[in-house]
Amino acid sequence: MHLHRYEKIWLALGAGGLALFIALLCVNAFAMGMAPPSNMEMIDPAQVTQTPPFDNPGLKKVGENEYDAYMTAFAFGFAPGKMEVPLGATVNFHVTSPDVVHGFQIPGTNVNFMVMPGHINSASYTFDKPGEYLILCNEYCGAGHQVMATTITVK
Amino acid sequence: MKIAVFSQTPVDRSTARLSLSYIWVAYAAFGLAALAGMLQGMVRGGLIELPSWTNYYQILTAHGVLMALIFTTYFIIGFLLSGVARTTGGALHAAALRWGWAGWVLMTVGTAMALVTIITNDASVLYTFYAPLKASPYFYIGAALLVVGSWLGGFAIFSSYRKWKRENSGKMSPLFVFMSVTTFLLWIIATLPVAVEVLFQLIPWSFGWTSTINIMLSRTLFWFFGHPLVYFWLMPAYIAWYVCVPRVIGGHVFSDSLARLAFICLLLFSIPVGFHHQLMEPGISPGWKMIHVILTLIVVIPSLMTAFSMFATFETTGRKKGGVGLFGWLKKMPWSDVRFFAPFVGMLFFIPAGAGGIINASNQMNAVVHNTVFVTGHFHITIGAAVALTFFGVSYWLIPALTGRTLTRTANRMGMVQTVFWAVGMFLMSFAMHYMGLQGSPRRTSYTTYMDHPVALEWMDYQRVMAFGGGLLFTAAILLLLILGYLTFFAPKGKTEYPIAETETVQHTPRILERWPVWVGVLVFLIVMAYGYPILEQLNHHPPGSPPIRTW
């Protein structure tokens, strides 16, 4: 099959750039620990409100200025309602759903993941700037999807 | 209404009637979908409120189903059937016509069922119908009929291809036919898992025959289909770019074998990639996600081949017409011919669209844009601009070619205006969507200020820009339907060319490109490699299932 010389150059540059890009993605994900949220833990969706720690959603201090936030996302809200952490706190969010699929996103941060019934999903973030951060559901979950939000205040 | 088909058509009357029947259902769906889309934009922009008997998510479901599934699938089958007939002697034989009509009937019954359940608000689950949101069983049955009907349309193409092969043994098939066969091979293989999801998971569960559903499995089966779906939209547009547009500008196919190779690459690397839609989900390990990301990004190669081929054709043709200097050939393009202008504008949109696609597919960057309105902006410049403008450009010659009428100078000029309106509207809307998405504004969400949260209030100006773009798009949609109605029923009778380009000289195309068992074999291997283990895991190791839930 005949390939024009310019086309060979064009494709070689494209393929080379692509290979470099893929290599960077792999380094990012596996060497630098920036893989997407992929928690493998499971839970019975019908028993969420009886299963610790989701029976009592909230912040638990696990280190010096580090917290685990156990949360539930349901139609149409999040539990706990509001949270507050000190400036510079690292928060490990662990979220599950007792009903349909929801999303969990904090605009302005890289915290963005799916919340699925039967699964627990997690992401961590260190809040270096003070303010009231919006937490919203970004997966359509029903008639009240647009009001499903809460906040986390960093002081 | 009966559409008169006059004698001077490049394909015979029965093929023209079949093809037009598909195309007009496509545009009827397009009109309704455009109305729904405009209303959504206005609601989200905070400009109007919907009456109490409907809601944002109902019209969002209607917009998604009608645009992404009905308009595209009907148009594609109608276009490809006519092109296959045109390049295999001008007519479909009786068996192909029967498959074609059987497909049309099944699809139309399915579409009607799905539409009724959407109108009665029993299916506001959006076109991705994520369980455990439960729609009416008749919505799922309608979807299944639509898919199975589209397979019959594919069988019409396969049947014509086999007949041509029998009568021309040892020859390479015409490029248009080869590409149509590849497109439908992709479609049938890609829709098998969603058919399994609908038939064995959703329908029994929605009737109450099974009490719970495996959510993870249903999502995996859906996205097995969901990504090749976008290539199913794109490949017919590529057919127009590779085969029809070169003829419109008076040029030739740049390279027959490269065109075929690009299509084989698309066939292989569009299916085993669905996890890139599930990057932010629990229950799938980062390693498997990365495998799908790598396979996804390989699509860059056939895309670069296509870009090269297009501009090589434009330059070669422009220089032959006397274009000199580095860019002089560009001036020789038929800029005032809508048959060229509309698809060309679509191609321009595809450049940023491709870049946005790479962002979406990349592991880490996806965390910034996942489920934000950035993604909506992305697929509005791929399907809504690159593909849709190409389909419009094709319709401007295809409909008069099939009805035996002509694209008059005025109709052509109106088509140019329509293209500009559509392009400007899409540019404004998708620019606002991309920008807001980067700020974190979610997709598929009705108007909200999140209790006047300052972050959300900052999005409002862009939401109004988005609504304004949507208004321009709706105007362009109405203009399009008026022009196409004119071309179907009122334009002067005459001969309209069905543009099919050929290579300038006889080119040697490697025979391996048409050995289907080889490519289907490679594809099955890739699918088993990418999906075999994860699906086994999801079947054997899963949390308790979910009961049906209605939250609207």
Automatic annotation (TrEMBL), chain A:
Keyword Nucleotidyltransferase listed: no
Protein's UniProt keywords contain Protein transport: no
Per UniProt, subcellular location reads as: Cell envelope
Q: Which GO cellular component does the record give, naming just one? A: membrane
Kindly give the Pfam families that the UniProt entry links to this protein. Answer: COX2
* SUPFAM superfamilies registered for this protein in UniProt: Cupredoxins (SSF49503)
Q: Cite the GO molecular-function annotations of the record.
A: copper ion binding; cytochrome-c oxidase activity
Catalytic activity, per the record?
4 Fe(II)-[cytochrome c] + O2 + 8 H(+)(in) = 4 Fe(III)-[cytochrome c] + 2 H2O + 4 H(+)(out)
What are the UniProt keywords, alphabetically? Answer: Copper, Metal-binding
Per UniProt, residues of the Cytochrome oxidase subunit II copper A binding domain are 54-155
Q: Which PANTHER family match?
A: CYTOCHROME C OXIDASE SUBUNIT II, NITROUS-OXIDE REDUCTASE
Q: What does this protein do?
A: Subunits I and II form the functional core of the enzyme complex. Electrons originating in cytochrome c are transferred via heme a and Cu(A) to the binuclear center formed by heme a3 and Cu(B).
What's the protein here called? Cytochrome aa3 subunit 2
